[in-house]
C-alpha cells in the first residue's frame, strides 16, 4: 500500500489530536519526524505525550523544544503544565516566562492563574487575571478575578470590576462573598437566595442564611429549621449549631449536634459536641467524648493537624478543671503513649502550661527528633521564648538546611521573621535564610517573595548598624526588586529610608551596583569527566553518555544491549532532565525507528 503524502499525514495527525485520540496522533507525528524536521509536528507530538499522560516523555520533549524555541510562549506554558502535573515547583518560573513572552496567550494566562489560585497565591493571580479578563471578557475569568480581589482584602474593587465587566452576567458566589465582605448583608442574602432557588445549591442557601444572621439573627434562627427540612445538609446544620452557640442557646445547640452526628461522624463535628458538652457544664460527658474522639483519631491518624487541634481542645478542657495532678496523669496516659508529632507537641504544651519548663523542653525535643520540621519549629519557638537563643539558632539552621518543599521553606521563613518570636535577631540565621530563599527565588509565590523582601530588609538594617553601607544598599535594592505588588508588610519607601541613611552616614559613598545585567549565555557542554561530576551521573547514565560520545548517535536497542536492561527510555529522559536543570543539552531525540527511539549526542 502506498503511504499517504506527508501533508495528508500531517493533517490526519492534527485531526486525531482535535478528536482527543492522542496516541494515534502521536504515531503519525513519529512517522513524520523520520521524514523531515517540522517544529509544528514536534510541538504536536510533545502535546500528545502530555495529554496521553506520558509525563516523563512529555517533559523531555518540551525541554528539548524549549532549548530550540526559547521564545515560544506555547512551549513554555505546556512545559509548565507538565511540571505542575508532576508536582515540580519549577512550573512557577515556566508559567511566568510563558506569559512574559506573550501577554496575549489566553491559554497560558488562564493556566497560570488557575495554578496560582490553586496555591492560594491570590496576589499573583490577581495581576494575571486582570490581563486575562481585559482580553477574554469571559464570566469564569471575571469570577476568578473577583475571588482573588476578595481574598487579598479588596472586596470593594471586586464589586467595581463586576459593575464594569459583569454586564449581562447574573450574581455569582464571588459577587455574594464580595457583598458580605463589604457589609451589604441584605443584598447578599437576597442574591444568595435567588441563586439557591435557581440552582438548588446548598452552599448558596448557607450563604443566604449566614448573611441573614449578620443583620437579623432572630429571623435567621426561625429560618434555619424550615430550610433544614427542605435541604438536610450537614454543613447547613453545623452553621445552625454555631449560630445557636453564638446567641447563647447552648442547650439547643447540643441537641442539634446529636442530630448532626447521626448524619455524619466527621471529627470536626464530634469535637463540636465535646466543646458544647463542656460549655453546658456536663464535664463527665465531655471528658468521655474528648477521650473517645482522641482514641479514634490516634488509631486512624488520618490528619495530624486535625489531631493536634483536638488535643489542644482536650488540654484546655483538662486545665480548666482545677485538678493539675489528676489531669496530667489522664493526659499522659491517653495522649503521650502514642509517639507521633501531634501527641508529642501536645504533651510538651501541656507541661509548659502546668509550669514545668524542664519537662516541656524534654517533650519538645522528642517532637523535634520525631519530625524535624513540625517538631523542630515547635521546639525552636519554645527555646526562643525561654531565652535559649543559641540552641534555637542551631535547631532552625538544621531545619533550613534540610527542608525541601517550597511551601515548607516559606513556613520556616515566616517563623523566623515573625516579630513576636524574636528569631530575626539571630544574624547567622537571617543570613542563611536569605541564601535559601534566594536559591528558590524563581519558584517562590507572593508570600515567599514578601518574606524574602522582609529578610532583605532585616539583613540590610543589620548591615547599616555594622556600617556596611554598600552591603546595606545592595540588600535594599534586591528587596525592592522582588517586593510583590501589593505587598502585605513592606513598602518601597522602607528600603529607600535605609538607602538614604547609608548615603548620609558614609564618608565616601561607594556604588553597590557595578555593571549592567548581562544576558545569560548558553553554557557550553563540559567534557565527559567534568560532565559526570557536574550532573552527578549514576553508573548506567555514565555508560549512556560514554557510548553516545563515542558513536554520536544510537538507537534505543543499542543502549539496551550496552546496559543490559529494557528501561532505557526512562533513564535517557532522566538524564535529559538532569542536564536541563544545569542549563545544558547533551542528548536530543531524533524520532523513532525500527529499533526504538533514536538519540543524538550534542555535546563535545
Description of the molecule:
The protein is 72% helix and 3% strand. It is mainly alpha-helical and 604 residues long. Among the domains are: 6-167, Alpha Horseshoe (Serine Threonine Protein Phosphatase 5, Tetratricopeptide repeat), CATH 1.25.40; 528-601, Winged helix-like DNA-binding domain superfamily/Winged helix DNA-binding domain (Arc Repressor Mutant, subunit A), CATH 1.10.10.10. Strands 1-3-2 form a three-stranded antiparallel sheet. Helix 8 packs antiparallel against helix 9, helix 17 runs parallel beside helix 19 and helix 27 (446-465) runs parallel beside helix 29 (492-505). It is globular and about 80 Å long. It starts with 5 loop residues before the first helix and ends with a strand.
Amino acid at each position: 500500500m502506498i503511504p499517504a503524502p506527508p501533508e495528508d499525514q500531517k493533517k490526519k495527525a492534527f485531526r486525531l489530536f482535535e478528536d482527543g485520540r492522542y496516541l494515534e496522533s502521536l504515531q503519525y507525528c513519529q512517522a513524520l519526524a523520520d521524514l523531515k524536521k517540522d517544529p509544528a509536528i514536534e510541538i504536536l507530538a510533545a502535546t500528545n505525550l502530555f495529554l496521553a499522560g506520558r509525563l516523563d516523555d512529555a517533559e523531555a520533549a518540551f525541554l528539548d523544544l524549549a532549548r530550540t524555541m526559547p521564545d515560544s510562549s506555547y512551549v513554555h506554558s505546556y512545559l509548565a503544565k507538565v511540571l505542575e502535573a508532576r508536582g515540580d515547583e519549577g512550573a512557577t518560573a515556566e508559567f511566568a516566562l510563558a506569559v512574559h513572552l506573550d501577554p496575549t496567550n489566553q491559554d497560558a494566562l488562564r493556566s497560570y492563574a488557575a495554578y496560582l489560585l490553586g496555591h492560594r497565591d491570590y496576589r499573583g493571580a490577581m495581576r494575571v487575571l486582570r490581563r486575562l479578563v481585559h482580553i477574554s471578557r469571559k464570566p469564569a475569568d471575571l469570577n476568578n478575578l473577583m475571588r482573588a480581589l476578595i481574598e487579598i482584602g479588596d472586596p470593594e474593587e471586586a464589586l467595581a470590576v463586576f459593575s464594569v465587566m459583569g454586564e449581562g452576567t447574573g450574581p455569582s458566589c464571588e459577587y455574594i462573598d464580595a457583598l458580605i465582605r463589604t457589609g451589604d448583608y441584605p443584598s447578599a442574602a437576597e442574591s444568595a437566595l435567588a441563586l439557591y432557588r435557581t440552582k438548588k445549591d446548598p452552599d448558596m442557601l448557607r450563604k443566604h442564611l449566614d448573611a441573614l444572621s449578620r443583620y437579623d439573627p432572630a429571623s435567621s434562627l426561625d429560618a434555619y429549621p424550615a430550610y433544614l427540612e427542605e435541604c438536610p445538609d450537614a454543613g447547613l446544620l453545623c452553621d445552625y449549631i454555631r449560630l445557636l452557640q453564638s446567641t447563647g442557646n447552648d442547650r439547643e445547640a447540643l441537641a442539634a449536634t446529636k442530630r448532626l452526628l447521626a448524619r455524619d461522624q466527621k471529627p470536626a463535628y464530634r469535637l463540636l459536641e465535646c466543646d458544647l458538652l463542656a460549655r453546658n457544664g456536663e464535664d463527665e460527658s465531655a471528658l468521655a467524648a474528648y477521650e473517645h474522639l482522641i482514641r479514634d483519631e490516634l488509631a486512624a491518624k488520618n490528619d495530624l493537624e486535625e489531631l493536634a487541634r483536638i488535643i489542644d481542645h482536650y488540654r484546655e478542657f483538662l486545665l480548666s478543671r482545677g485538678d493539675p495532678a489528676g489531669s496530667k496523669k489522664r493526659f499522659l496516659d491517653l495522649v503521650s503513649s502514642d509517639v507521633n508529632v501531634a501527641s508529642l507537641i501536645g504533651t510538651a504544651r501541656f507541661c509548659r502550661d502546668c509550669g514545668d519548663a524542664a519537662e516541656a523542653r524534654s517533650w519538645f525535643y522528642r517532637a523535634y527528633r520525631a519530625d524535624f520540621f513540625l517538631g523542630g519549629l515547635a521546639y525552636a519557638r519554645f527555646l526562643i521564648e525561654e531565652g535559649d537563643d543559641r540552641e534555637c539558632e542551631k535547631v532552625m539552621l538544621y531545619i533550613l538546611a534540610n527542608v525541601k518543599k517550597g511551601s515548607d521553606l516559606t513556613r520556616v521563613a515566616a517563623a523566623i521573621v515573625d516579630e513576636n518570636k524574636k528569631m530575626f535577631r539571630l544574624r547567622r540565621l537571617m543570613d542563611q535564610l536569605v541564601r535559601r530563599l534566594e536559591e528558590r527565588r524563581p519558584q517562590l509565590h507572593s508570600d515567599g517573595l514578601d518574606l524574602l523582601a522582609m529578610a532583605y530588609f532585616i539583613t540590610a538594617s543589620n548591615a547599616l548598624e555594622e556600617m556596611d553601607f554598600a552591603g546595606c544598599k545592595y540588600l535594599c535594592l534586591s528587596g525592592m526588586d522582588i517586593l510583590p505588588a501589593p505587598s502585605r508588610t513592606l513598602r518601597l519607601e522602607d528600603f529607600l529610608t535605609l538607602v538614604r541613611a547609608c548615603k548620609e552616614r558614609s564618608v565616601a559613598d561607594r556604588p553597590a551596583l557595578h555593571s549592567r545585567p548581562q544576558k545569560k549565555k548558553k553554557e557550553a557542554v563540559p567534557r565527559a569527566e567534568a560532565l559526570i561530576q557536574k550532573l552527578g551521573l549514576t553508573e548506567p547514565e555514565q555508560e549512556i553518555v560514554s557510548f553516545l560520545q563515542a558513536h554520536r548517535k544510537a538507537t534505543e536497542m543499542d543502549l539496551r544491549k550496552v546496559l543490559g536492561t529494557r528501561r532505557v527510555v526512562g533513564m535517557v529522559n532522566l538524564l535529559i532532565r538532569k542536564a536541563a536543570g544545569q542549563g545544558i543539552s547533551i542528548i536530543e531525540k531524533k524520532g523513532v525507528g525500527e529499533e526504538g527511539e533514536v538519540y543524538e549526542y550534542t555535546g563535545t
